[in-house]
Amino acid sequence: MRAVVTAMDIGRPAGLLLVLSAPSGAGKTTLARRFIGASEDARFSISATTRAPRGAERDGVDYHFVSPERFAALVAEGAFAEWAEVHGQRYGTLRSTVEEALAAGRVAVFDIDVQGGAQVRALWPASTVAVFVLPPSMQELERRLRARSTEPDSAIARRLAVARSEVERGCSQYDYCIVNDQLERALTELKAVVACERARLGGGEDRAAAAIAAPLRREELDPRPWLA
Ligand code: ADP
Ligand code: 5GP
Predict the structure, then answer these.
(1) Is the per-residue pLDDT at 48 higher than 70?
(2) Residues near ligand 2 (Cβ within 6 A)
(3) What is the pTM of this model?
């Protein structure tokens, strides 16, 4: 029988799949980039999508931008760990991205929707921590989406229309909820969640991180202000 050698067996920390979801405009991309910029071994999981690049987005950096035909071929090949249709476009996480992160003992950061987050967790339950990012309020969510000026009004309306159901699912299914009112505070909280979960995966405990992370557990949040 072949022994399975994991990153931990050879002295590296265990890989962690950090799923970050939020209603569009809540600031998860901003938070994810700040987190990755501040962490030596965290990498952004680059998804494939059929949507067009917006703003300064670059192919192979922000997304793998592919045609609908290419996306369908990747689905047929079984290349995706998960994929979903979001806001009328297709988005998917490549299986190879996840496997490489786990083998290297890194933190892979997934900026994916709640459907995708549930699928990643179902495939790699022991290695996944799912964090839902909430805007301070639904009014502020709309303000941020408009201030970002990257979508036409019709796309903003579509994103706001699905925000409520995303909040409902995120607040009932994710491990942690972080309110992104002040970015620096939200970043400190995200770092603590990761430190706490990595320590746990390694069979230990990070008490300082756990003290920050514990109140952020899903069960501690009352989601009613976002659903009213
Ligand atoms: P998402 O990836 O969730 O769609 P973005 O990261 O693109 O959201 O953020 C949406 C807009 O809100 C951007 O213009 C971003 O600069 C802004 N933003 C993000 N976090 C905050 C915050 N804590 N306070 C104010 N504005 C923020
Ligand atoms: P955006 O068009 O704003 O970049 O992303 C729209 C939505 O698609 C966001 O909620 C984002 O998290 C989600 N998304 C991006 N990549 C993936 C992916 O690979 N899989 C899934 N399921 N959702 C994704």
Answers:
(1) yes
(2) 24, 47, 51, 82, 84, 86-87, 91-93, 111-113, 115-116
(3) 0.91
